[in-house]
Amino acid sequence: MEIINAIGRRKTSIARVYVKPGKGAITVNDRELSDYFKSEIHQTLAKQALAIAKADGQYDVSVNVEGGGIKGQAEAIRLGIARALVQINGENKPALRKEGILTRDSRMVERKKPGRRKARRRFQFSKR
User: Across the 128 residues of the chain, what is the mean pLDDT of every consecutive 10-residue run?
Assistant: First the structure.
């Protein structure tokens, strides 16, 4: 089997994921997963697709991720790994779909509008 690649996106983060058979090593931007994501929650979030597909320790995953914050990057990696696992084995799709991991979360930050303090927040009204 050759290297399978997939793209995951979340907010403004974009993750390019490359999966190949191996011992379960996950590298993010040429760093170990535990070095890149200090929080255990973000590490678990990134590995969630592998756990659901029962593919822990079967594949080496290399990721290039950019943009956004830590959580958005972790969720983009999760989506990219899930898409790659479906390419490898179509039988993984129902389990990943049931957990909602294959769905691209398209929510983005709304832009600031002119004449407002934020996207929707207006300036305080002064009667006098």
Answer: 92 96 94 95 95 92 96 96 95 94 94 95 92
- Would you call 21 helix, strand, or coil by DSSP? strand
Q: Is 2 helix (H, G, I), strand (E, B) or coil?
A: coil
48, 8 in Cβ contact below 8 A?
Answer: no
Which structural domains are found in the chain, ordered by start? Answer: 4-98 (3.30.230.10)
Q: How far apart are CA 36 and CA 15, in angstroms?
A: 14
Angular region, 100: left φ>0, alpha ψ -120 to 50, beta rest: left
Q: What does pTM read for this prediction?
A: 0.91
CA distance 93 to 3: 19
